[in-house]
Amino acid sequence: MTTAESSPAHSLLRFELLVLYAIALLAFCNIAVFYSFNIYMERLGIAAEWRGPLLGMEPLAALFLRPLISPRLHLRNGVTVMAGSLVLIIAALLAYRFATTVPTLALVRLLHGTGFVALVSGAAAVFVHFIPPGKSAAAFGVFTIMTQAPFAIMPPFMEMMLRHTGNEAVAYAWVSLIMLPALALLYPLRKRVERLPEEPDTKLATGLDRIRESLLPRNVRRLLLVNLLLFMAVTTVYFFIKDYALSIRMDRPGLFFTFYICAMLTVRAFGSPFFDRLDKRKGITFALLLLAACMIFLGETKAQWAVLGLAVIYGSCLGAAMPLLGSAVYLASPPQSRGLNTNLMLSTIDAGYVFGPLLGGALLASGLMPSGLFLVAAGFAVLASIVTWATRFQMESGSPKAEPAGS
């Protein structure tokens, strides 16, 4: 039995969850500022064939590190890991000002990725212990609101900062200051965690054996694949939408992020109470197909108003699909594997952030127009919908149950 299940506090707004929501918000603020990193590297004179790998270098660190550290994370050490990771993130943000070559940028991106993956993995390991019974989709909905809100706030904020600093690296250094409140919030969280009884998962096997055990349910494996395909699509749009916006002479490309994130947050804020009662198989499949259609039209339109309208649809689809997927993985997992599987789900996001820009950068370098990348992204979304529809969700009170191990 998890801590949340044995606690009388069944609110999504209990103190521990509020702290974790805030840390997630601040953590993703330091990622959202890199939406124009490809343009920044171009100004530095970085060759096109290196820009894709450097975009993916930070999530590449996460891709390799998260599976190594996730089986060793639990309620007891999660807060300590978060504190150390925040120090690494602050150091990395300050170091961008001194990294102007491929080797130095690669080093800073790897340092940044190491700090970020440790922060989010530690937060996820603690977060699952405080999810109220019967409210997993709503809890993941709020958590993902915190992870996505920065992508609406930070791009226009960065555009404003660039008008004053004139340089992205200087702006990144200023962004390091917002990590300081996250460090301060960890102290009261640690005190709360220390008062809790020791969790049984601190004594579980670590390493690959635990990962293999957590992946035994077929639904878990399929849902992780769906999440990977989804983020291959999303990151392709995320990293190259500014290139496309500039090619159609869109005045304020940062507005795309504002519109789609605001739509996403609206869906999550008003839809979260219903997500736990929704047929997740149908809901995820429909959202993915509509997302694919949106990406296809996005590559065909040249009008700014149409791009922003599609941004609203795009954000609405993600606003439904992502918390439903998070809830489905949580519910399909045995209780002792929920923290690990949540981190494995984050690993598929890492993989998307690595291979999305790698593929996109390679295709652009080969001569593909930015609009063509959106057709590739749509293909990933369609594949994700097919895998979702092929997954047999066993329903109980509107939620899928875990399949028997090895099924």
From TrEMBL:
For this protein, the parts annotated as crossing the membrane are: 20-41, 79-98, 110-131, 138-157, 169-189, 223-241, 253-271, 283-299, 305-332, 344-365, 371-391
Query: Could you tell me which residue ranges the Major facilitator superfamily (MFS) profile domain spans?
Result: 15-396
Per its UniProt record, what Pfam families does this chain match?
Answer: MFS_1
- Give the Gene Ontology MF terms in alphabetical order: transmembrane transporter activity
- Carries keyword Membrane? yes
Q: Which domain of life is it from?
A: Bacteria
- Record has Transmembrane as a keyword: yes
Question: What UniProt keywords are attached to this protein's entry?
Answer: Membrane, Transmembrane, Transmembrane helix
| Residue ranges of coiled coil | none
- PANTHER family (alphabetical): QUINOLENE RESISTANCE PROTEIN NORA
Query: Per its record, how is this protein called by name?
Result: MFS transporter
